Amino acid sequence: MVKIFLALLSTTSLTGAWAQAPKEITLSQKTVAELVLKQGPKTLEVNLKYQQFRLAPVQALSAYDWKILAETGFEYDKSASLLTTTSQNNNKYERYKTTVNLQKPFTTGTLLGLELSRLSQKVDLDAFTTNPPPSQQTLDSAGLILEQSLLGNFFGVADRGTVNAAELTYQANNIARANELEDVVLEAIRQFWNTYVAQENFRESVNSRDRYKKLVDAVKRKTSLGYSNPGDLPQVQAEFETREQRVKSSSTEYLKNVENLLTLLALEPGTEIKFEIPKDIPPVPKLTEKKVEDLRLVRSQKLRVEAAQEALSASESLSYPTLNFVGKVYTTGVDESSENSYSELVSGTRPKYYAGLKFQYNFGSDVQNETVINRKLTKDLESTRLQRQLMETQDLESQAQRKVQSTYAIAQSSQRQREFRDKASQELNRSYTQGRTDISILITALNNYFDSEVQYIRAVGDYAIALNEWAAARDELIPDDVPSEGYQK
Fold first, then answer.
1. Dihedral sign, CA of 371, 376, 380, 382?
2. Residue 453, Cβ neighbours under 10 Å: how many?
3. The model's pTM
4. pLDDT for the residue numbered 17
5. Beta carbons within 8 Å of 180's beta carbon, 6+ residues apart
6. Which of 18, 118, 168, 321 has its CA 20 to 30 A from that of 382?
């Protein structure tokens, strides 16, 4: 396996870069997928982005939280009254009032409320006041309130639609998260193979340069003995310089790919990579047909269509005027003593009942109708996207399968081509040594062989990438519920 420091040594500007032995890691496709899901920066970005979507369903449900309101205070009252004489305007009132209100809305369009209040009053009356009330009294009140939607938001249709739309959208995003993480894994695997191909390309560049160096030495010996043709030595020397240039360029390309791979996997810069590559080209697997309805993109989009339908139902319900039934039941107690007032309250001897209807109609802006139209357009848009994705995902799976078959055939053909090129270059080399072949023919054969080595490695990498793309198209590269650091459902 070619080491990173060999590539660095081939570039004169970087000869002193490795003062210490670099760390080493062995990578396979499996370890690459595991590392990028565990610590890759792009994985972290995806997880953080989808964590933000947790807020929407919680916000929708927050409208149905318990609500408690408590108020207490002191009031001093010496204000004038139209029903009193001037002499009676000297009455002074001191009141302590405490009110506690507890409410709970439900997704059935129901509002339940409990109200408790106590009013303690102390009065300092004018001396001329006739039939004065007690100087100190306490009024206690307890009530139960029920409000039920009857027309707009009929028995909670809009409430449930809003909550369901938020939850369905969140579920759709969770599915989309797995699909986006699959793209991250696929990108890392592509980079893994690109780096391996770049490494092998660099190694082949070094090998081809060394072989041309030997050929240059052989031609020099023939030239010194007078056995070579005119121009043989300059041609070989020119090809040797070409190979020197390819070593430099392939070294730079290899280092670039290594750095990109280390960054994708969040590995320490300068880590030395060893590649674990299968020796043989695996055959094309035979897979069962995958139903397009089971694919993540389609399942996610179906949930978005359902969410849009729920939002449409909610907006249609809210477009009607509001008509609510209101029912109230109170019990009260009043006495000079707070204890007696409370006893009278709980005895229920002083009840108060109320039943009625509350109507509200908003008009002027026509915003309700426009909201319904907007929600219907959103629903139609999501449905159109679903139909498009049904066709595109089916096409994508078919195209990925054909690409696997094509790249497999190309890899096998490239392997045979490499063997033929190698055999041809060896035979022509012997023929040139014997003086029966022109140097240009040998150079062409050698170049073709070197190119076939690179093409074969690239073909193997393309086939491996195509296999992973096929698995991704079938949602089989990673599971749906990917356990990743920092992500909670």
1. positive
2. 22
3. 0.81
4. 38
5. 46, 50
6. 321
Identify the pLDDT of residue 486.
Answer: 47
Question: What is the C-alpha to C-alpha distance for residues 333 and 118, in angstroms, rounded to an integer?
Answer: 10
Judge contact between 449 and 432, C-beta under 8 A: no
pLDDT of residue 7: 37
**Which tokens is 247 given?**
């070593």
Residues 187-203 pLDDT 10s: 999 999 999 999 999 99
Domain positions in the chain are 4-56+180-304+383-473, 63-162+323-378
> Homologous superfamily of 4-56+180-304+383-473 in CATH?
Outer membrane efflux proteins (OEP) (1.20.1600.10)
H/E element, 296: helix 296-318
Q: What is the pLDDT of residues 15-24, one digit of tens each?
A: 343 345 568 9
DSSP string, 376-411: HHHHHHHHHHHHHHHHHHHHHHHHHHHHHHHHHHHH
Cα of 396 vs its chain's centroid, Å? 21
Cα–Cα distance, 27 to 277 (Å, whole number): 9
Question: Pairing relation of β-strands 351-360 and 272-275?
Answer: unpaired
Q: How far apart are CA 250 and CA 209, in angstroms?
A: 12
CB atoms under 10 Å from CB of 128, counted, come to: 9
Dihedral pair phi/psi, residue 267, rounded to 5°? -95, 160
Q: Count other C-beta atoms under 10 Å from residue 300's C-beta.
A: 21
Average of per-residue pLDDT across 27-49: 94
Gap between the Cα atoms of 97 and 132, Å rounded = 22
Q: Token digits for 133?
A: 């009330």
**What are the C-alpha distances in Å from 286 to residues 11, 470, 471?**
46, 12, 12
Pairing of strands 67-77, 272-275: unpaired
Neighbours of 377 (CB within 10 A): 12
| DSSP H helices in 119-231 | 157-225
Q: How many Å apart are CA 446 and CA 424, to the nearest integer?
A: 9
Q: Are strands 24-27 and 272-275 parallel, antiparallel or unpaired?
A: parallel
Give the number of other Cβ atoms within 10 Å of residue 56's Cβ.
15
Counts for the chain of helices (H) and strands (E), in that order:
10, 8
Q: How many CB atoms lie within 10 A of CB 121?
A: 19
